[in-house]
Amino acid sequence: MYRAEVFLRQLEPRTGRTTQQVVNFVLWPIAVMTVLNRVIVTAVNGAITDDFRPVYNAALAFWNGRDVYTADFNSVDPHYLYPPSGSLLMAPLAILDPERSRWLFIGVNAVAILVALYLLLRLFDLTISSIAAPILVLGAFMSETVTNTLVFTNINGLVLLGEVAFLLLLMRKKDLWAGAAIGLTIAVKPTLAPLLLLPLVRGQWKVLVTALGIPFILTVVAWPLASDPMDFVRRTVPYLLESRDYFNSSIVGNGAYFGLPEWLILLLRVVLAAMVVVSLWLLYRYYRNDELFFLTTATGVIMTASFLLPSLGQMYYSMMLLPLLMSVVLKNSVMRNWPAWLAVYGFMTFDSWWSNRWPTFGRAAEYTKSTLGWSLLLIVIFCVLGYRYLVARREGRLDRGIDPAYLLDPPLDTVSPADEAETATKH
């Protein structure tokens, strides 16, 4: 009987005794199985949209010395838009056959996302054993941005890794390595290029050496190896500068799709751009010494603006907003309110709003959810920072920053023991 008890004790699952243990035991199995489902089943199954095929074809053409920039921009199929430096980095994909190469690329992106999530935890001084870890993994892999990055098989997972590595290295003053992390992504696609504003305002000029030097060197190497490098300049660049009315969640793209007048589209862009400028000014003026809050919040504002205000923004770009979302663990985070997470639902949800019963409403909701989500996020950040500023100015404490009074050290309304003793003596 005793032996049976010992044997069963060894098989007994560990029981959570604290809230943290219970949350971890509940969420980790769900998170792990969600990751496996997204990578092994959902991504491998693929979808009508295939971002990998044009990249593979371009890599194969570059590898064999054929023309790369031959896309028909009159079609709505995904096009190859990487510069020659990106073609050079993507060329090894052509070593394998298309199917196995795609599987490998899915795996590489999945690993890159997981590593990026781990680095994001470290950025906030959190560990794998914290409850934030399974929440972050589960939330990321349930989102539209991670799911479609894997399903469509594009490079955004590696771009996310470059972004988080850039922020972490920037925080630790490893400027050349921070520049290398973002420079490798810029060599393929310029998604993160606006973030170079951060080292500029922080005086970390060395970042630019590798951030700009790596794409330049790769371009110098790739240019003579490419069969048609000037076609990137003549054909692809003008297309990139155009605004299209399909698969485009920017204000311009959605406005064109729904037939909004030009003046209204311009007005919306100007108003939101003004909010972005004010938000960034408040962040720089009052939070630049609060490095983690400043970097993650400013990154979120800059990235959201770069998706919403220029000519092209696609919903799965929202992966680059994970550092901002993770900042909710900070006491002074701008994400600690329900409108911010309503916005997050808009650009992160994998829910489909197509409706057979109400097709007009369903079409509008489906096509505008990310646009409205990005817009609401910028409005929320502007309102939170603006309200903090106005309150601090009214209370005459701008010299102490604009954090809410209850976060100040010491709090604004506290009374020192000496003052209490003096008051007691007087009475």
TrEMBL record:
<feature type="transmembrane region" description="Helical">
    <location>
        <begin position="103"/>
        <end position="120"/>
    </location>
</feature>
<feature type="transmembrane region" description="Helical">
    <location>
        <begin position="263"/>
        <end position="284"/>
    </location>
</feature>
<feature type="transmembrane region" description="Helical">
    <location>
        <begin position="176"/>
        <end position="200"/>
    </location>
</feature>
<feature type="transmembrane region" description="Helical">
    <location>
        <begin position="315"/>
        <end position="331"/>
    </location>
</feature>
<dbReference type="InterPro" id="IPR018584">
    <property type="entry name" value="GT87"/>
</dbReference>
<feature type="transmembrane region" description="Helical">
    <location>
        <begin position="338"/>
        <end position="354"/>
    </location>
</feature>
<feature type="transmembrane region" description="Helical">
    <location>
        <begin position="291"/>
        <end position="309"/>
    </location>
</feature>
<feature type="transmembrane region" description="Helical">
    <location>
        <begin position="150"/>
        <end position="170"/>
    </location>
</feature>
<protein>
    <submittedName>
        <fullName>Glycosyltransferase family 87 protein</fullName>
        <ecNumber>2.4.-.-</ecNumber>
    </submittedName>
</protein>
<feature type="transmembrane region" description="Helical">
    <location>
        <begin position="126"/>
        <end position="143"/>
    </location>
</feature>
<feature type="transmembrane region" description="Helical">
    <location>
        <begin position="80"/>
        <end position="96"/>
    </location>
</feature>
<keyword id="KW-0472">Membrane</keyword>
<feature type="transmembrane region" description="Helical">
    <location>
        <begin position="207"/>
        <end position="226"/>
    </location>
</feature>
<keyword id="KW-0812">Transmembrane</keyword>
<keyword id="KW-1133">Transmembrane helix</keyword>
<keyword id="KW-1003">Cell membrane</keyword>
<dbReference type="GO" id="GO:0016758">
    <property type="term" value="F:hexosyltransferase activity"/>
</dbReference>
<feature type="transmembrane region" description="Helical">
    <location>
        <begin position="21"/>
        <end position="41"/>
    </location>
</feature>
<dbReference type="Pfam" id="PF09594">
    <property type="entry name" value="GT87"/>
</dbReference>
<comment type="similarity">
    <text>Belongs to the glycosyltransferase 87 family.</text>
</comment>
<feature type="transmembrane region" description="Helical">
    <location>
        <begin position="374"/>
        <end position="391"/>
    </location>
</feature>
<keyword id="KW-0808">Transferase</keyword>
<keyword id="KW-0328">Glycosyltransferase</keyword>
<dbReference type="GO" id="GO:0005886">
    <property type="term" value="C:plasma membrane"/>
</dbReference>
